[in-house]
Specification:
globular, single chain, seven-stranded mixed sheet, mainly beta, about 50% strand
């Protein structure tokens, strides 16, 4: 069964950096795209960054463009999110995601990121 496990969250001051990692198991990781989403209190879950199955064509939400970088290692079944110049509005629970060909979404348990002003 598909399992996604995030790590790397915590608290950081504004302007700081943090790296999130997600380890995937239970499916053929290298043939599916991956994504990072986040959900702040009282807000809808939103897409932050996505990456194709082979690491090509990363895409970013406008709010994180130029500050966040998504990458993947198909040999290790991992997808990372490097976050630089963090802002208080980046505070949220961050989730790792993949979607199969049937359109079913799979999510990790989430990791809290808190950016203090």
């Amino acid at each position: 069964q598909v399992q996604l496990v995030e790590s790397g969250g915590g608290t950081v001051q504004a302007g700081g950096s943090m790296k999130l990692s997600c380890v995937a198991s239970g499916y053929t990781f290298s043939v599916y795209g991956m994504g990072w989403f986040r959900q702040a209190p009282g807000k809808e879950r939103e897409e932050v960054a996505t990456i194709d199955y082979n690491g090509a064509r990363p895409s970013y939400a406008a709010s994180v463009q130029g500050r966040f970088t998504i990458s993947r290692d198909n040999a290790k079944n991992t997808v990372d999110l490097q976050m630089n110049n963090l802002k208080p509005e980046d505070t949220a629970v961050y989730y790792c995601n993949t979607r199969n060909r049937q359109g079913d979404d799979y999510w990790g348990q989430g990791t809290q990121v808190t950016v203090s002003a």
